[in-house]
Amino acid sequence: MHIFVLALGVVLAMSVMMAAGWAFQRARGNGGWTDVFWSYSVGLVGVAASLAPLGSVLTPSVRQMAVAGMIALWSLRLGGHIAHRAAEGPEDARYAELRKAWGSGFDGRMFAFLQLQALSGALLIATMALAAHYPAAGLRLADLLALGLLGLSILGEGAADRQLRLFRAYPANRGRVCEVGLWSWSRHPNYFFEWLGWVAYALMAIDLTGAYPLGWLALSGPAFIYYLLRHVSGVPLLEVSMVASRGDAYRAYQARVSPFFPSPPNTVSNGKDATP
Question: In the 3-class helix/strand/coil scheme, how is the chain assigned residue by residue?
């Protein structure tokens, strides 16, 4: 298979799957389901792109199978978590804000928004594919470290999601800000660990000797997901909603805790909240 054929197939597959996600969330009246479709779509297409034969090599290598396995694990965990949340709880605060802001034009603008998400997914899948198709017979030390980092990102994101779910399960915590465990070091530890996983793919793709110059393009994955989560559709939209619902308690939390990268909470000697 030629690389351009693979790239076109990835883009088309993501477009179709996110169109299906748009139809599903429209029928359910819950925009959060689109994140389920995105997680499973990136996982499914990412596995296919990683295992796809390029050039004359028809049998998947150990590297390709390792990357495909980690993609599948990541996708199943994240998609399952979001599906449970969408099925059991209210609409994700980010989509609720968009529904309010877009009003009667929500459906049309949502479709266009999800097609942009399809393109973003295709870009991230390119990072996965570049890692999988590194031309080496076996796994390097850097690859083993990257696989460990990817495993850490999956475990860390799962731990953050679990801590938040358990916190919210107690009626006494209703309306309170979660500041336990990982959430005491980062306001969005789940986003941080998600980003860390994409760093792992880039690490697998990069070759410092110059033997695989295409691998450097994999840096676009972690750079893009950081920009998206930190400055576009992740932290900003969610924090607007949290300030609206938690008020001064969340503002105080913002003053104490890092927005993304984990670090010890900011405090001052007089006990007042510190400014980040």
Answer: CCHHHHHHHHHHHHHHHHHHHHHHHHHHCCCCHHHHHHHHHHHHHHHHHHHCCCCCCCCCCHHHHHHHHHHHHHHHHHHHHHHHHHHHCCCCHHHHHHHHHHHHHHHHHHHHHHHHHHHHHHHHHHHHHHHHCCCCCCCCHHHHHHHHHHHHHHHHHHHHHHHHHHHHHCHHHCCCCCCCHHHHCCCCHHHHHHHHHHHHHHHHHCCCCCCCHHHHHHHHHHHHHHHHHHHHCCHHHHHHHHHHHHCHHHHHHHHHCCCCCCCCCCECCCCCECCC
